[in-house]
Design goal:
The protein has 241 residues and is mainly alpha-helical. It has eight helices and two strands, in the order ββαααααααα.
């Protein structure tokens, strides 16, 4: 019996022969995952703009609660942008793995996509923690200074981890994308995003302005990668056929 490939028909269905060899995406599927990645990156850029308005939290406990109350709406928007953007990045990372299936460095490509997806997963969980600053759960909220401090410190620590994952993802994907249909521009921006993500991981060293700029660079890299997935979806689909 002849071996056949497994292929996504663009409608979510998969046709399979008796001996499947690999999965591949259609141009329409690349359109979907590329759009998800692009929107996720743009949401990260929007989050960076709002982070500039919020600034760094003060260290004094009493001032910390006041800071939370003054920026309640902005913090809520930051949380929504972060959780939706992170979820979209996870979806986009899956599509990116298919696009790089024919890369000359498949293990590097898979590693980069895994790191990017992991950053998104951790980001979704971290957004749930950050949301406790503005959203009560079962009638309970972080009202006292000690609770607010705990949420802020956990969020800051989690953001450090997410930023390091994004730095590693950007660096490895930049290497994997060399010589592919993504082009030199995406490779160059990816390398810059790796450096920017390291800056995001250490906000005390770069200040608010530097942090916001670095976050925007990382978000811009993710969005650019998604746009290229959409623009060259036919090429990626043909390469995987």
């Amino acid at each position: 019996m002849e071996a056949t490939d497994r292929t996504d028909d663009g409608a979510g269905d998969v046709t399979a022969g008796s001996r499947p060899r690999r999965w591949r995406l259609s141009a329409r599927s690349f359109l979907g995952v590329g759009t998800a990645l692009a929107v996720g990156g743009l949401l990260f850029v929007a989050k960076a703009v709002l982070d500039a308005q919020v600034g760094y939290p003060p260290t004094a406990e009493g001032a910390l609660v006041t800071w939370r109350d003054q920026h309640h709406l902005t913090l809520a928007l930051v949380d929504e942008l972060f959780v939706i953007g992170s979820a979209l990045v996870v979806l986009g990372a899956v599509g990116l793995a298919f696009a790089l299936a024919t890369s000359a460095r498949p293990f590097t490509a898979l590693t980069g996509c895994t790191l990017l997806a992991l950053a998104g997963v951790v980001g979704v969980g971290l957004a749930a923690v950050h949301g406790r600053l503005v959203y009560p759960v079962l009638g309970l909220d972080a009202a006292d200074p000690a609770s607010v401090r705990l949420v802020v410190t956990i969020t800051a620590g989690g953001m450090h981890v997410v930023a390091l994952l994004l730095a590693a993802a950007a660096a490895t994907l930049a290497v994997a994308q060399v010589g592919t249909a993504f082009g030199r521009a995406v490779v160059g921006v990816g390398a810059a995003a790796a450096v920017a993500a390291l800056a995001v991981a250490y906000p005390d060293l770069v200040g608010v302005g530097g942090l916001v700029f670095a976050e925007a660079v990382v978000g811009g890299w993710i969005a650019l990668t998604g746009f290229v997935l959409v623009a060259r979806r036919t090429t990626f689909a043909a390469a995987g056929a």
